[in-house]
Amino acid sequence: MRTHFIEDRNEIDAILKQCRTCYVAMSDNDVPYVLPMNFGMDGDRVILHSAQEGRMWETIKKNPKVCISWTLGEGIAWQDQQVGCSYRVQSKSVLIEGTVEIIDDFQEKERLFRQFMTQYSDLAFKFNAPAIRNVGVFVVPITRLTAKVFGEKVKK
User: Is the CATH number 3.40.50.2300 carried by domain 2-152?
Assistant: First the structure.
C-alpha cells in the first residue's frame, strides 16, 4: 500500500468539507499544546473561535504560529492478513501551517461566524450582538499546505 501527496486543491477542499474537527497545534515556549476544535474555511484562511481567555488564547498571543491537522477516514487495509506490518489505516490528511490573526472588527467577526457555520449546515443563522462581541474569532491564513492519501492499494 502506498502513501501519495494530494496536489489538487479541489480534492483537498473536498476533504476539509467532510471533516468536522481539526487539531490545532501551538507552542508555549518549549511546551507543545494541541486542541481539537471546530473550524470553518474562508478561502485560504481557516476560521477558529473560542473564549477570549484561557491557555489556548494566552499561548496564541505569545506565539501565533500554529499547525492545523485534519484526518478523514479510518478504514483498515492490509496486503497480507497474517503480516502485522502490512496493515494500514486508509485515510486522507491535510496539514496547514500559518500565523493566527485575531479579528476584532464586529462586522468581520459576524461575517466569519456565518462562513464558519457553512462547514456544518446550510441554514441561514442569526447571531446576537453579545455572542459576536464575547467570542474570540481568529483566522489562520495558509502559509503551507500539504495533503496525503494513506493506504492506497497498489494497482497491479
Answer: no
